[in-house]
């Protein structure tokens, strides 16, 4: 059977007074108890360790840019119609070889008889040449480093990198109804959000074995498209644009790394399909035949964000590139010497 009783406080009788202005503590009591109290305070009043965290955020284009387009051209008699990227060209008349620069007659045997049909035009006036051009271009994959900072973070603190710009994402309209001759009051509130890269780094703990416990939560938001809106009661759409944001975010949670190890966070993938139509004005809007004067491009993008985290515990000695020197005071030096004798 175990009986639990309150123990007598060992430091009972020691008087303690503190001064916030000078940031000092005064102890009055027996010498042995004062030395024990100083030893306990020395354990509490130690510098927090620091770590240099290198965070590299890389945006990788998985498929690069896949582009597939179509364009048409055709000819009727002496007229050739072609479409290149939505720009229409019409050529009239037959094409004959130029004679500029020929200074002498060509002699020799006859090679052959010239054809009466040039570029596929026949004498009946029907379409002879009809070309369909299928264009496909694939660009090699590329990677872009979005940011590569090295943050010095103290144990238990959070540091953040923000490479953003503010965009308008919404409007809020409040209408306060009037009474009698009092007109209604209309107030418009603009809501904004940050577009760009936000990278918070939190260092939770640095232990004596060289392990660092930390967490990161990178997020990337980019403008997707702009939408024109009409505020009720104004009847005006112009200049009222909101920006829709496309955001990629990852929350790592707390993880532990050894000093100098690198953690790779991957799998933040964005898939985007985009169709672009360029056409000859008016002619490109004609049903069925309008396809002869239009060009359609289909683009597909797959992008992945990869985050590499490398922490390094800072050395407080002079030989450290990130370190700093510390010269203790007279009283602190005496306490440290007493601790070393034990």
Automatic annotation (TrEMBL):
GO aspect biological process, one term: protein secretion
PROSITE patterns: T2SP_D (PS00875)
GO cellular component: type II protein secretion system complex
Name the record gives this protein: Type II and III secretion system protein
Residue ranges annotated for the Type II/III secretion system secretin-like domain, each copy included: 138-314
Entry superkingdom: Bacteria
Family stated for the protein in its record: Belongs to the bacterial secretin family.
A family per Pfam: Secretin
